[in-house]
């Protein structure tokens, strides 16, 4: 770094630019590759171009210098500087001033070298930006910590990192295209909220000086989107950042991208079909409808099964389990399988613990797990035919929850009751309990149509198709501060 800093200072002292305001580029590297790809080995043209890029490889000989420039998605192009074409002073300056990682501008003729390499034979060059820090060594594997912490360097040297940025962007386009094509309206709702709600999660707190008011960063998109449906936006969605002040691991981040969509007069079944269409659209955009996972091969073109929790658990245990099965019997079944479950939990929570341990990991193909015990999601609408169960599902693929869907609760009286219970739990110290949101209840009291809703974690969706962890799908994930 000291040597590079000295070069910068010398260049400036000589009256030259180390960081010019711009460059007179006429062609991207990709455009040169595409336009002159037809050239035969050794063929030269009189076509003059000006290209720019980062120097990723350099080899200097006596009267000739070679370099590989890189741009954007990783496109590379060779440039050649010969004594005869650029002159002694310019060639000497190249050899003394240019390092790996520098950005340069090169003007010259397009040729195909005698070794078959499409190239620009320089007649002149200029420094576009002097790199003061050497790039990570290309032939040595960067540690995951370094790759994630210095993503900018990771993007320069690793094609997989550049590809992931575009893969996620393509997934986002596919999601939007699917929803827009079905008449959904994309909206934006506040990140700062007076009352946190829409999920059971610990929020981040902040303070708004203008109102002298403590605020929370949103933990879900739900409540404002439902207000929009009340107002007549019958199909609405938002894809945005949400924030949960919880653990960080290979599948969880405190800040991540969530899609939520709500449809007036829809229900959990119509939202399940919408989720399937979204997944297929993303599969077509970034991968394949056949996905290899550690659990096995997933066929998205196959049946998307609906599996009720109690029958699913009954099948796994080899005996019938119903909402009437005594909790003591369930705890005994858990003990037989060396599963530790808190005996103070209600029956529905024990059922969920057993299901998550014994059934979910075995689910490979897309499956809508439905008819959960009401204790699993206290804010969900209870089924008309059996109030001990709820109108909701989780989409499980390859043993992991990928999305959730509901026939939404729109009765303002019942909604007030469950939010009041949540508020009491919050007052008693539960950091994940929702607060009572009077504005949301007022909206429901104006009359909300029956509706279905879904929530899809975009990062988990991309993780499924790419087989990487969440720290790879998020461009700049949160890490502990450097020492």
UniProtKB/TrEMBL annotation:
Gene3D superfamilies reported in the protein's UniProt record: Bira Bifunctional Protein, Domain 2 (3.30.930.10), Nucleic acid-binding proteins (2.40.50.140)
Binding positions (Mg(2+) 2): 401
Keywords of the record: Aminoacyl-tRNA synthetase, ATP-binding, Cytoplasm, Ligase, Magnesium, Metal-binding, Nucleotide-binding, Protein biosynthesis
Subunit-level organization: Homodimer.
Binding site for Mg(2+) 1: 394, 401
Source organism per UniProt: Janibacter indicus
Catalytic activity, EC: 6.1.1.6
InterPro entries for this protein: Aa-tRNA-synt_II (IPR004364), aa-tRNA-synth_II (IPR006195), aa-tRNA-synth_II/BPL/LPL (IPR045864), Lys-tRNA-ligase_II (IPR002313), Lys-tRNA-ligase_II_N (IPR044136), Lys-tRNA-synth_II_C (IPR018149), NA-bd_OB-fold (IPR012340), NA-bd_OB_tRNA (IPR004365)
NCBIfam families, sorted: lysS_bact (TIGR00499), PRK00484.1 (NF001756)
One term under GO cellular component: cytosol
Lineage of source species: Bacteria, Bacillati, Actinomycetota, Actinomycetes, Micrococcales
Cell cycle in keyword set: no
Cell location: Cytoplasm
One GO BP: lysyl-tRNA aminoacylation
PANTHER family: LYSINE--TRNA LIGASE, CHLOROPLASTIC_MITOCHONDRIAL (PTHR42918:SF15), LYSYL-TRNA SYNTHETASE (PTHR42918)
Catalytic function, reaction form: tRNA(Lys) + L-lysine + ATP = L-lysyl-tRNA(Lys) + AMP + diphosphate
Record gene name: lysS
Pfam family, one: tRNA_anti-codon
Protein name in the entry: Lysine--tRNA ligase
Manganese is among the record's keywords: no
Cofactor binding: number and manner: Binds 3 Mg(2+) ions per subunit.
